[in-house]
Amino acid sequence: MSSGTIIAIAIPVLVVLAALVGFTSLRKSDVQGLGQLSRETRKRDAGSLTVAPVSDEAKELERSVALARVGGDVAVPEPTEPEIWSPPDPEEIGVTRRQFLNRASITLMTMGLSAFGAANIAFLWPRPTGGFGSKVKIGTISSVNDVIASSSPAVTFSYFSEAQTYLQPYPMDEATQRAAESVYSGAVLDGIKMGYVALWQKCPHLGCKVPSCATSQWFECPCHGSQYNRVGEKKVGPAPRGMDRFPVIIDGDKVVIDTGSPTQGPPIGTDTTGQGLEGPHCA
Ligand code: FES
User: Fold this and answer.
1) pTM over 0.85
2) Domain range for residue 8?
């Protein structure tokens, strides 16, 4: 599934989840408060409510009390006008605890979901192409061949910093090519058959950048002394293999190094070119 499809699915799912959380937080509760009777209880009470008939003595007592009031024995307060109700000012009431908790939980949920969604989108967003980790165009065939020709032998081998790669010429004679076919395969062998091998600058021992040595015409790692011949096959030192390498692609008249697909270097003991020391070591 492509990244675009995953993003197209992930965004609606996140929106639906956020809407669900918001809806459940805002839903009015059925419970109106403590002490409130349920509808069934009120119905049952109403059914059992009976009004006792008023007896003649009670009516007589009521009448005598009313007469006593009229006669002035009992103080009857003057009726007052009922106070007109006005709704309370919401600002005076302020925010209730329930409102505060609802709003706080919705805010926190929204922030959490937003952060989660943003992190997912950032993770799935396609990486920019063109830099190290992708296919890097290092130049035209003729310009790359010019660099190689001017640096073999040279103080530094042909180095392309944008691909962190030494692009080395690979001998095209029949014996060397046959030796290469017995060791290498896939895209690396395809590059060798075109006369190129792209070596990653990173030492396979502990990752130091490996410089070339102008006198020995080998690569010599200054960190722990691993040494490799001109095509990155290990000669001495603690490195577990030869230098790792990238596929070389010819795209029209352009040379492209696929730095997103490194291949492990050849095992210790590989020597397809037979290149010996050409002078004293640097490291
Ligand atoms: S990092 Fe190169 S030899 Fe250790």
Assistant:
1) no
2) 1-25+91-126
Distance, CA of 146 to CA of 148 (rounded, Å) = 5
Q: Is 14 in the pocket of ligand 1 (CB under 6 A)?
A: no
Please give the Cα distance from 179 to 271 (Å, whole number): 8
pLDDT 10s digits, 128-174: 666 888 999 999 999 998 888 877 666 668 899 999 999 999 999 99
Q: What is the pLDDT of residue 128?
A: 62
Cβ proximity of 225 and 210 under 8 Å: no
Same domain, yes or no: 122 and 139: no
Same-domain check for residues 164 and 235? yes
Residue closest via CA to ligand 1's atom 1 equals: 206
Are 195 and 115 members of one domain? no
Task: Identify the residue whose C-alpha is closest to ligand 1 atom 4.
Answer: 224
Q: pLDDT tens, 167-177?
A: 999 999 999 99
| Counted domains in the chain | 2
